[in-house]
Specification:
Oligomer: single chain
Shape: elongated
Strand content: 15-25%
Number of strands: 3
Number of domains: 1
Radius of gyration: 16 Å
Low-confidence stretches: none
Distance between the termini: 42 Å
Structural class: alpha+beta
CATH class: Alpha Beta
Strand order of the largest sheet: 2-1-3
Length: 114
């Protein structure tokens, strides 16, 4: 029973979404979860211990949950190596949120490091 429910909801989550607000909410949730991942936090703490601040980025998603573009809109972090690392890692990350075939959506996301 639990397996059936899990597969049912996983299937719903992988269905293409048309509502821009819902897409934006899911993308924010997925990127926040990625940022709070223990492996991610330990890497940043080990390699960039001095990084504190906020990064606001414009991210363009493609239909299959792939991040196509990552543009820095605003940042108070001045460490260029960290900003390059962030851009590469976010673009490499595949989202579970799926758009309709051929669709693209721009999302503005705020990353915060304390």
């Amino acid at each position: 029973m639990v397996l059936c429910c899990t597969l049912f909801f996983a299937g719903l989550y992988a269905q293409p979404i048309a509502d821009p607000k819902l897409i934006e909410q899911r993308v924010h949730a997925e990127l926040d979860a990625w940022q709070q991942d223990p492996a991610q936090l330990s890497f940043v703490a080990g390699h960039f211990p001095e990084v504190r601040g906020t990064v606001v980025a414009d991210i363009t998603l493609s239909g299959k949950g792939r991040i196509e573009t990552f543009f820095l809109s605003e940042t108070d972090i001045k460490e260029p190596r960290f900003l390059e690392y962030l851009q590469k890692q976010v673009k490499k990350h595949k989202l579970k949120t799926v758009l309709h075939k051929g669709a693209r959506q721009k999302v503005r996301h705020r990353f915060v490091w304390n």
